[in-house]
Amino acid sequence: MQEKIKAFMDEVRSRNGHEPEFLQAVQEVADTVIPYIADNEIYNGKNILLRMVEPERLISFRVAWVDDDGEIHVNRGYRIQMNSAIGPYKGGLRFHPTVNASILKFLAFEQVFKNSLTTLPMGGGKGGSDFDPKGKSDDEVMRFCHAFMAELFRHIGPFTDIPAGDIGVGAREIGFLFGMYKRIQNEFTGVLTGKGLSWGGSKIRPEATGYGTVYFAQDMLLTKNDDIDGKTVVISGSGNVAQYAAEKTLQLGGKVVTLSDSGGYIYDKKGIDEEKLAFVMDLKNNKRGRISEYVDQYPSAEYHKGKTPWEVPCDIALPCATQNELNGEDATTLIKNGCICVAEGANMPSTLDAVHTFQDAKILFAPGKASNAGGVATSGLEMSQNSLRISWTREEVDERLKGIMKDIHDSCIEHGIEADGYCNYVKGANIAGFVKVADAMLAQGVI
Ligand code: NAP
């Protein structure tokens, strides 16, 4: 089997050798799905996985825009349309200086499996730009978003490709992007998700990824007759996912002790309660400040510059910032300090080394494609509401979200339980996600 996996990866590497993040994501899927394909004759000899690693379409374009001083800047825009076997492409847009084809291809590839797991009819895609919204005025962000959409509009549509937010793309950016799409197309359609509540957005969409991650952690703990109540929780990031992961943790009785950004992390031994979290939300969402400012407001907390929070003792870790933010050494430290459960809110925040360390120690570990799927699932619910021209209540959406997270958890258990009873959630998520897409591809012929 190892030879088969190696031969497959050699072929993928020969085409994508310069894309380390993409190869990392493919390796993780190949390790679990190739043995499954070998055991299931219907998938044999069809090169299904080889087809799945090749994007259906990769779009790259120039985005020229003018700053407040009249200077012209050029950024690169992308949309990766990875797989549309089970529905139109769906996945976020990321605006961050590190964005490149490798990062977006890894995200688009993961998105295919994630969207399949939600049980909703959504294919996988991802896009974005190397534009950095940090330090830009609202007008500059608007001009960039308008210029970006002035090209992207021709590649997307409510039945073709429905982008959403991701790092650097929140409610403000979605508003500007939607405004330009509507202006060019002269139609009001659900072509983007994460819209404002008064113009087609779904209740609970901003909260969904963070809430869903915590629901998933709760489902995992339940398999051990345990729960979040009374647990100490370490969270990285302080953006959309981290904020709402923290909020749901508090609601379920957990104690959140850290948050971070790319500058470092804050450690509040007393716990980040509702009031402190409201301060962080205002700081990050309205003032666009840095997490280091938390200690000016709450001086008993500590700020650890240039570090990640994995050295802080905890029961549960929720990495909610970015890819590869938690390595093998961090995983060893977490386990040594008593961590029993890790649920990824971010996409691929754990390196392969870290994943293997968690699994070797047999602790509960959920990959992002399962545990953070609540965001895209609720985007799917936003699409349904837009099509039906109705708006569900907060309670209705939250119930659906909880149900979807539980279904994803059940799928992981179905395909991930190993001989000794340990649930390998990575294997479970990869196989469950693969089966639905592969079956659709087989039914549709060689495409
Ligand atoms: P966000 O609101 O832009 O927040 C991102 C957070 O991560 C910020 O605190 C940011 O700090 C930090 N961060 C970004 N790059 C970093 C780096 N290189 N090193 C350390 N910290 C870094 O984005 P988000 O929506 O919360 O997304 C966070 C993660 O969740 C991403 O992996 C995203 O793909 C994933 N995700 C998001 C959704 C969603 O619905 N939003 C759904 C599924 C998965 P700075 O402010 O210093 O940059």
UniProtKB/TrEMBL annotation:
SUPFAM superfamilies associated with the record: Aminoacid dehydrogenase-like, N-terminal domain, NAD(P)-binding Rossmann-fold domains
Chain positions recorded as NAD(+) binding sites: T209, N240
Site (Important for catalysis): D166
GO molecular function, one term: nucleotide binding
CDD domains reported in the protein's UniProt record: NAD_bind_2_Glu_DH (cd05313)
One GO biological process term: glutamate biosynthetic process
UniProt keyword annotation of Oxidoreductase present: yes
Residues bound to substrate: K90, Q111, K114, G165, S379
Residues annotated as the enzyme's active site: K126 (proton donor)
Keywords: NAD, Nucleotide-binding, Oxidoreductase
Ranges of residues in domain Glutamate/phenylalanine/leucine/valine/L-tryptophan dehydrogenase C-terminal: 202-445
GO CC terms: cytosol
Record's subunit section: Homohexamer.
UniProt record similarity statement: Belongs to the Glu/Leu/Phe/Val dehydrogenases family.
PANTHER family attached to this UniProt entry: NADP-SPECIFIC GLUTAMATE DEHYDROGENASE 1-RELATED (PTHR43571:SF1)
Official protein name in the record: Glutamate dehydrogenase
Annotated organism of origin: Ulvibacterium marinum
